[in-house]
Amino acid sequence: MFCKIHSMALLGIDAKKVDVEVDVGNGLPGINLVGLIAAEVREARERVRVALRNVGVPLPAKKITVNLSPADLRKEGTAYDLAIAVGILCGLEMIPAELTERVCIIGEVGLNGEIRPVPGVLSCAFSAREDGMEWIIVPKDNGQEAVMVDGIKVFAAETLDEVIDFFIGSGEKEPLIREYEAEVTETEEDFSDIRGQYLAKRAALIAAAGGHNLLLLGPPGSGKTMLARRIPGILPPLSLEESIELTKIYSVAGMFRPENGRITKRPFRSPHHTCTPPGMAGGGARLPVPGEITLATNGVLFLDEFPEFRRECIEVLRQPLEEHRVVISRLYGNYELPASFLLVAAMNPCPCGYYPDRNRCSCSPDRIRRYMGKISQPILDRIDLCVELSAVPLKDLSDKTCGETSAKLREKVTKCRQLQAERFKEEPWRLNAQIPSAGLDKYCVMTRKAEQKLVNSFVSRGFSVRLYDRIRRVARTIADLAEEEIITEAHVSEAVLYHAMEGGFRGYNGGLI
User: Fold this and answer.
1) Contact indicator for 209, 340 with CB cutoff of 8 Å
2) N or C end of the chain: smaller count of CB under 10 Å?
3) Model pTM greater than 0.85?
4) How many degrees, rounded to 5, is the angle at CA 275 between CA 269 and CA 279?
5) Mapped to the 3 state alphabet, what secondary structure does 28-96 carry?
6) Which has the closest alpha carbon to 466: 346, 380, 365?
7) What's the pLDDT tens digit per position in 2-40?
8) pLDDT by residue (tens digit) across 34-57?
9) Would you call 349 exposed, middle or buried from its count of C-beta atoms within 10 A (0-12, 13-18, 19+)?
C-alpha cells in the first residue's frame, strides 16, 4: 500500500513542502527511512514505532519504506515524526489516503504518543497556505502560532490519539480559534530622560530617519548605552510585512511567544562582546539558526565596547551592512537570512576610557592607536555617522527641563521616511543610506555653495571617495528633516561633523589619534 503525506522543511526563515512517501509491503520487517536525512530524522523510526505501539497500534511484520521527497533536499530536525506516523497508519489502511490530500502535518512525537512543539511553525503555515493546503496539524503548544496565518485551518494536537481521531473520528473537525490579537505593550524608555548630549541626540535622529549606521565614541558614563537603547522608540511603527517577517525569524529561532501575538515592536539586540561569529551571523552544525544580525532585522543592533569584539566577529558585518542579508553556506546548500538593521556601535576613546583627560588617562599614543585600530577601515567605511560624547556637565544634569520626547522624534522620523518612500517609489531601495553611488547625482542635488563646501572639506581633510559619498547621503537626510528638496551649505556643514576619520578618529582636542 502506497500513500503520501505533506510536511514542511525550513530553509532559512521560509519553508518548503516535503512529501513523506510511505510504502508498506512484503519483505524483511522494519522501517527504512531514505531521502537525504540527518541523524535525528533517521531516529524517528524508533520514536514512531514505540509511540504507535503505546497508543495501541503495533506494527505488523511488514517492510515499511519511508521516503522524504525531494531527495536532494537535506532534511533535519524532528518535525517530520508526526507526518511519518500518519503515513504509516495510512499505509496500513487505518486512515483513508484521500483524507490526507490537503493536510500538512508537523510535529515531534514522544515515545508515549505525546506531540511536542517544534520551531518555525509560523513559516510552515504560510508555506502550507501558499501550496493550497486546507488544514495544518501542529503540536498544541504551536497552535496559536499557526493560527495567526489566515486562509488555512489549524488543528492543534496534544497526543497521537487526537491526530488519529481527527482523520477517522465521528465528530466534526473544529479548527483552532485565535486567542491573542495583539502583543503585550511594554513601557518604552524615552529620549526626554537624556540630559545634555545634544549633538549625539541629533545624530541619533538623523541615523533613524535615513537608516544610517551610527558610532558613539565617549568615556564611560557619558550616556552611550542610554542613547542607543532609546533609538528603537523613535523608529516608525512596523509595517504588516515587516512584522510578519520578524515574527517568522523569532519563530524559526524558537524565541517566539504566541501569547504576545504577532511581533509589533522593533527589536533591540545587544550581544556581549564575547559573542562568536556564528552567534553574530547565524549558523549551526545543521540547519542555520538566526544570529544576532538576523534577530535585529527591522530594528537596532547595538554593539557596546565595539573594539572588544573578536575581529572576525566584527568582519562578518561587512556583507549584511552592504546587502542586507546573510548567506550561510553548508555542505548541502546555501541558506539566506534577512539582515536589514540599523547598526549602533559604542566605544571608549582609549583602553582605560578617559582620553583626553590626562588627569585620569595614562594610555600612550601607541596604545590608543592600537586600540582604535581594532576596527578595520572597511567596517568604518560602512558607518555613516560618528559622534564624540564627553562627560555630561553638572549644569546639564541638574537641568529639570525635559528635551524632546521619543514620540515627538518618532513623528519627525516617520515623516522623513515617508518622504523617502515617495521619492524612491520607482527604485529598489527606500532609505537615503541605501542610495547607490550612481544615484547620488540624481537624488542629492546641491546648491553651488554646498558643492564648494564639500569639495573644500574633501581637499583639506583628506576624505576618501567613499566618505565623500557618505556625507552626501547624510546631507540628504538632514535636508529631508528640514523639509528642503535642495541640499544647502548648512546641511553639508552639519554632515561633515559626523564622520569617522580615515586611518583614525579625531580626539576631543581636535588632534588625530
Assistant:
1) no
2) N
3) yes
4) 75
5) CCEEEEECCECHHHHCHHHHHHHHHHHCCCCCCCCEEEEEEECCCCCECCCCCHHHHHHHHHHHCCCCC
6) 380
7) 899 999 999 888 999 999 999 998 888 889 999 989 899
8) 998 989 999 999 999 999 999 998
9) buried
Residue recorded with cell 531527495? 71
8 A C-beta contact, residue 428 and residue 257: no
Distances (CA, A) of 301 to 64, 127, 295, 407, 430: 50, 29, 9, 21, 19
Q: Which residue type sits at 209? A: A
Name residues whose C-beta falls within 8 Å of residue 115's C-beta, 6 or more positions apart in sequence: 82, 107, 108, 109, 139, 140, 157, 158, 159, 160, 162, 163
With contact defined as beta carbons under 8 Å apart, do 96 and 64 qualify? no
CB 272 within 8 Å of CB 257: no
- Please tell me the distance from the alpha carbon of residue 166 to that of residue 173, in angstroms, as a whole number: 7
Contacts of 292 (CB under 8 A, 6+ apart): 269, 271, 275, 279, 280, 301
Query: Under a CB-based contact definition with an 8 Å cutoff, are residues 216 and 387 in contact?
Result: yes
